[in-house]
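Troubleshooting log. The previous run stalled partway through. Resubmitting the same two chains, unchanged.
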Amino acid sequence: MPLGEEKNGASDRSIYVNNPHLDSMTDDILYHFNLGTSTHDLPAMFGDVKFVCVGGSPWRMKSFIEYIARELGLSEPNAEYPNICAGTDRYAMYKIGPVLSVSHGMGIPSISIMLHELIKLLYHSRCTDVTVVRIGTSGGIGLKPGTVVVTKQSVDSVFQPRLEQIILGKPVVRSTELDGELAEELLQCGKDLAEFETVIGNTMCTLDFYEGQARLDGAFCSYSEEDKQSYLAQAYAAGVRNIEMESSVFAAMCKLSNLRAAVVCVALLDRLKGDQLTSSHDVLNNYQQRPQVLVGHYIKKKLNASKKR
Amino acid sequence: MPLGEEKNGASDRSIYVNNPHLDSMTDDILYHFNLGTSTHDLPAMFGDVKFVCVGGSPWRMKSFIEYIARELGLSEPNAEYPNICAGTDRYAMYKIGPVLSVSHGMGIPSISIMLHELIKLLYHSRCTDVTVVRIGTSGGIGLKPGTVVVTKQSVDSVFQPRLEQIILGKPVVRSTELDGELAEELLQCGKDLAEFETVIGNTMCTLDFYEGQARLDGAFCSYSEEDKQSYLAQAYAAGVRNIEMESSVFAAMCKLSNLRAAVVCVALLDRLKGDQLTSSHDVLNNYQQRPQVLVGHYIKKKLNASKKR
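Second attempt completed without errors. Output:
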């Protein structure tokens, strides 16, 4: 199937599921969320969601909801944010006002399960006009550690903006195009804040952390430091500024379901200078908060603008 | 690179890392475990490990260590099993006597990060003669729900026993061969127990849970019920009895590092009859304990045999 053939020609901002079978199901169990259409009133629980932030670590997604609650003036003293997916340890989910925060684990398959169920959740909840942002960590290429990268294009291991999805044993190629306007708005938020460096660039999405990212410190390594540097230099020349493990399927699935989507990741290290994460726990922790701060600023700006209208 | 070219010709049971760069590192940080060679005395902590059980869910891997402690007579009243990876939420790790229990999240990339760091941990700890078993959940094909499948071969979406690993942008094909003798021993343990059905068969390993496994209930579905049934029938004809998302890279990486490895998964449902997990929480919970019980029996048998020697 050629790139983009599955694209929706939608002009409104409804959430699409592209699955004729769903309408004939009397009940839909979102197994990995421990939620379902017959056990939960999804429109009442989630109908007001306008922003979904997703990230690998459950702890980080809990800290994000606490942060955004404070930023939006929605936090109350001693407020607890219960995990909506409490009956499972596959993912964690938190909500405050129009903001949903969901963890997705590590890697394309893990985030893909979460996104299938999130897209169905938003669809069943009859949400409209939803923006989804992945806030994550990554390895930078030629960047100062702590720099935040807003993804222009998510590219594969040969620097192409595509994802190969296997369906019934056959490859289907999907576009990993993200929302250009949203990326520019997020870049502007980084400039407004002026608390840390924010850049826009391509993000390479890989299937593993060690050999797939040309690291020299895995259990296996069949290449030299020179091979590594040459590969990373090719990536840099193709506009790649950071490497992570979820953006391609995130971009492809959001595009197929008409979700406005962006990827904002902090670079924890410069891969041209090393492979191991040697910075202190406190420094890494501070870096990991930067995408949260940037996206928090964006959400506040959007909500204030819509109040004024 | 042809299949098997990376294979070790080892006759002893040392753990191999295949990475000449590791020896020149003064310190090795196992980032996703929050452990390291300069911060932890790994040989003292892990040198006695002979069995490693891995599974997706952190809760399940905690319940496994509690179970195996009781089975081996190593549990003490009110004993707590602290999470060895306490400073991170990426993976959870527990230990009792010679048994290590580690969670790996969902999907090939997530388990691959864990295995790189586990193999290095066993290597730095100078462990020998280690057996690693993945205990997991899966979808069955033509099996009664609750049946336990010991994997003969882990196969890809076109039913071949191989894994394509991308290194520096180029595909390298690796064998997913498992230890045949160990699989037979585990099958025998299932027969000894006679508490549930245990079979041996091929396991298909996919990159996603919905489209990659021919489910009709994802956010996207471009095929019919007939297409699905035809694909699953082809899989069955190729010896596939269950489908999960980690076995191929698990098999490939264990083989490369000289670890005796097996995959034991319970089938939570029969995919020929449906896609959704409609069984009650209690029933599914009971099913998930079966691989634990089987592998617990195997470990006890092996430890008793070595005591007698």
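Takeaways: Chain A has a mean pLDDT of 94. The first strand of chain A starts at residue 29 and ends at 30.
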